[in-house]
């Protein structure tokens, strides 16, 4: 409420849903804004300078609400009215057909709009770093790490060389807002340079798309149905996305102070990773 950008701030109220930061909605001079409150989270490689750079690049190409003020640990932006999506929304064919062009625009235009230093979001580096953090912290999950890291090595080899684009890298359904006439993509904590396959795989895994939905998503994105080689690379990246989410939650069990059941989230994502890995091995 004391930020210098406001003239007559009023009616602050917390918004639910954040699991890496706190979000507050407030009104100033008849307009509503959202303020994201949260510092760097080194154990998750979340650096707020990077979030701001990725957010501003996405803003420049019209994908995310405008930033009105930023300082360390604080990001204030326009509030947008709309419906936060859930997994069932994303699985709807008509909605998926609206989401895919959004990702295509991000991947085609976002990198050119970046300014200043930004991070590379390479899932296999992150998984290795998470493993070191878990070992150092004496996590109960340490006995599983050798198996998980071997799987990561196999998946990285299967994915092979990649194109590099600006990725969102955290495509939970709740990070998409349907404003009726358009979609907004929000929350750039994990934004950074990455393969476009990661966003596609993350969207599919987080929404639990069935295989026909995944193939349609890829066909819309690519303009043609994926061949067997690309499908295998995509499934490998989906496994990597689920592995990273699993290990993100394992690390959060050690370090997060937010009120969230990370233990249950770890178990849920580990089960989904195991299922996806079985699919990959069958290809």
From TrEMBL:
Residues 13-225 form the Aminoglycoside phosphotransferase domain. The keyword Magnesium does not apply. Keywords: Kinase, Transferase. One of its GO terms (molecular function) is kinase activity. This is Choline kinase. The lineage of its organism: Bacteria, Pseudomonadati, Pseudomonadota, Alphaproteobacteria, Rhodobacterales.
């Amino acid at each position: 409420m004391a930020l210098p950008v406001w003239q007559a701030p009023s009616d602050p109220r917390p918004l639910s849903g954040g699991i890496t930061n706190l979000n507050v909605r407030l009104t100033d001079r008849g307009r509503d804004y959202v303020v994201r409150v949260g510092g760097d989270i080194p154990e998750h490689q979340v650096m707020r300078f990077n979030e701001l750079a990725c957010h501003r690049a996405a803003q420049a190409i019209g994908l995310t609400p405008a930033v009105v003020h930023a300082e360390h640990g604080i990001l204030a932006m326009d509030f947008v009215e709309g419906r936060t999506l859930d997994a069932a929304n994303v699985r709807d064919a008509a909605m998926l057909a609206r989401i895919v062009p959004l990702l295509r625009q991000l991947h085609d235009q976002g990198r050119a709009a970046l300014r200043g230093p930004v991070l590379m979001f390479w899932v296999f580096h992150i998984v290795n770093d998470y493993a070191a953090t878990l070992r150092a912290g004496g996590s109960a999950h340490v006995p599983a790490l050798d198996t998980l890291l071997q799987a990561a090595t196999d998946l990285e080899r299967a994915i092979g060389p990649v194109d590099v684009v600006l990725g969102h890298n955290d495509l939970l359904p709740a990070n998409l807002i349907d404003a009726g006439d358009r979609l907004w993509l929000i929350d750039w904590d994990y934004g950074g340079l990455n393969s476009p396959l990661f966003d596609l795989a993350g969207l599919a895994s987080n929404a639990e798309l069935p295989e026909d939905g995944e193939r349609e998503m890829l066909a819309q994105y690519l303009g043609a149905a994926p061949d067997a080689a690309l499908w295998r690379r995509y499934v490998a990246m989906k496994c990597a996305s689920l592995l990273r989410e699993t290990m993100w939650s394992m690390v959060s069990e050690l370090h997060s102070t937010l009120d969230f059941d990370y233990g249950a989230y770890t178990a849920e994502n580990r089960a989904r990773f195991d299922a996806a890995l079985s699919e990959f091995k069958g290809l």
